[in-house]
């Protein structure tokens, strides 16, 4: 049975997959017609499976959605008392931190100065797996790492107002070293970016010429090993074959569920602090090259499950677990969970990277964010897998490299040429051609009244892991 063609179109950018089989709820997808046509049949089977877990009370797809591991990337699953590991994935609390600098477009128009900045960042931040530590990268004692796992950004003196969550509580008596494969990764990788789609990028606002730095990374090997451990343990508990472990789930009140929750939260704390530590290195590089300051604007995760206040259509509230797999929290003004923060009256920022060619955006949620369980996309969404990209684009390597070096954009009234990189060749599996167009994705959110674009930025320098 084709689930893709069982989907019903509700409005120009809103599709619904009715309850089929074991689905507990219908699934709502926010897509333009073009984005819908591009979706994979297997992704619809994944959201069908996602909506069929015990305790599910909401299932959503955002406009950057695509096939994932067990659960679609760009998927949001809401439950009453169930924790679904695949709705978080392996990179627990992967997310973004954004710094606003006191620079303007004309200050970064020089390729030479941007190249110097890239080199200075690389002296302070490990790119890739983090095993090759640059000379100016900080090291951390085990006691500090334990504090980070327990208290996140608070452990390194970061204020709560610039964090989606400063830290997530874990049990006071928690033994982080119990999962040794994970714990062994924590100290050497704290302060490193990682590979794949993780990056550090200097961006310029197309309208006002303000200069930003966006950092995208997660919980590194610590989070990956925790996720892997609990996929196997969850499958064993539920009687699911090891080769189908992505279908496992946990009850929040059962011992294994509580244990996963604790380790998941410690991985989130690692990721939150990791982004701020990397931001410190970026700030040093800005001062060194440009004699400029960069202040953290906001930091937010997009692979996480958290217990949140759900605002129901009748205005009543209840608590539930919101799983965001490649999706960003988007609390609009007045949301109960923003009480006590500086964002209560305007909603908090949503930091959305696109691609190393297409740039990024900062959004603010609007009232219709409640239609998506207060969630927006986490990026633009892949249209090509990594192996496929390397195979199909290999003959275009020179063209893509030249495009990155020579592209010209007028940003804040200043013409800037080229996007400086830290590699001699553009990684084909991360180039702009393997992602959807960010503006097309964001247009869906704006048309549905889910969020508005506050800043639209384009890249002028980019660092990626090379191992």
UniProtKB/TrEMBL annotation:
Keywords carried by this UniProt record? GTP-binding, Ligase, Manganese, Metal-binding, Nucleotide-binding
Matches recorded under Gene3D superfamilies: tRNA-splicing ligase RtcB
Cofactor entry: Mn(2+)
Q: What are its E.C. numbers?
A: 6.5.1.8
Which reactions fall under this protein's catalytic activity? Answer: a 3'-end 3'-phospho-ribonucleotide-RNA + a 5'-end dephospho-ribonucleoside-RNA + GTP = a ribonucleotidyl-ribonucleotide-RNA + GMP + diphosphate
Q: Does the keyword Nucleotide-binding apply?
A: yes
GO BP terms, alphabetized = RNA processing
Where are the bilayer-spanning segments? none
InterPro entries membership: RtcB, RtcB-like_sf
**Gene Ontology molecular-function annotations:** GTP binding; metal ion binding; RNA ligase (ATP) activity; RNA ligase (GTP) activity
Which Pfam families does the record match to this protein?
A: RtcB (PF01139)
Query: What protein am I looking at?
Result: 3'-phosphate/5'-hydroxy nucleic acid ligase
Species, as recorded: marine sediment metagenome
Species classification: unclassified sequences, metagenomes, ecological metagenomes
């Amino acid at each position: 049975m084709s689930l893709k063609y069982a989907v019903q179109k509700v409005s120009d950018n809103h599709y619904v997959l009715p309850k089929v089989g074991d689905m507990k709820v219908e699934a709502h997808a926010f897509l333009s017609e073009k984005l819908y046509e591009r979706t994979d049949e297997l992704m619809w089977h994944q959201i069908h499976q996602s909506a069929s877990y015990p305790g599910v009370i909401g299932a959503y797809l955002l406009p950057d959605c695509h096939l994932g591991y067990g659960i679609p990337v760009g998927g949001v699953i809401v439950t009453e008392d169930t924790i679904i590991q695949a709705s978080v994935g392996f990179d627990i609390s992967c997310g973004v931190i954004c710094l606003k600098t006191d620079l303007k477009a004309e200050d970064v128009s020089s390729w030479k100065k941007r190249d110097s900045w890239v080199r200075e960042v690389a002296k302070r931040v490990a790119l890739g797996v983090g095993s090759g530590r640059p000379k100016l990268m900080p090291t951390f004692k085990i006691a500090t790492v334990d504090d980070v796992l327990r208290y996140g950004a608070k452990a390194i003196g970061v204020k709560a107002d610039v964090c989606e969550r400063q830290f997530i509580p874990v049990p006071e008596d928690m033994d982080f070293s119990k999962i040794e494969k994970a714990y062994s990764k924590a100290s050497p990788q704290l302060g490193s970016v990682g590979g794949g789609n993780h990056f550090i990028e200097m961006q310029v606002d197309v309208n006002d010429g303000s200069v930003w730095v966006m950092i995208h990374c997660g919980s590194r090997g610590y989070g990956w090993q925790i996720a892997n451990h609990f996929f196997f343990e969850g499958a064993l508990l539920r009687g699911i074959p090891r080769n189908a472990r992505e279908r496992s789930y946990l009850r929040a009140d059962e011992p294994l569920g509580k244990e996963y929750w604790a380790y998941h939260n410690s991985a989130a704390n690692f990721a939150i602090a990791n982004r701020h530590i990397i931001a410190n290195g970026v700030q040093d590089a800005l001062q060194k090259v440009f004699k400029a300051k960069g202040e953290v604007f906001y930091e937010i995760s997009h692979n996480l499950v958290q217990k949140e206040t759900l605002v129901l259509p009748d205005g009543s509230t209840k608590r539930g677990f919101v799983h965001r797999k490649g999706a960003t929290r988007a609390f609009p003004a007045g949301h109960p969970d923003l009480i006590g923060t500086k964002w209560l009256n305007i909603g908090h920022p949503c930091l959305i990277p696109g691609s190393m060619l297409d740039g990024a955006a900062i959004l603010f949620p609007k009232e219709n964010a409640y239609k998506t369980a207060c969630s927006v996309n986490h990026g633009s969404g892949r249209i090509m897998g990594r192996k496929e990209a390397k195979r199909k684009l290999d003959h275009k390597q020179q063209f893509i490299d030249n495009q990155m070096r020579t592209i010209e954009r007028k940003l804040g009234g200043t013409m800037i040429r080229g996007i400086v990189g830290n590699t001699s060749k553009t990684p084909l599996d991360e180039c702009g051609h393997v992602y959807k167009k960010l503006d097309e994705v964001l247009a869906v959110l704006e048309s549905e009244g889910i969020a508005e674009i506050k800043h639209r930025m384009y890249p002028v320098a980019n660092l990626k892991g090379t191992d």
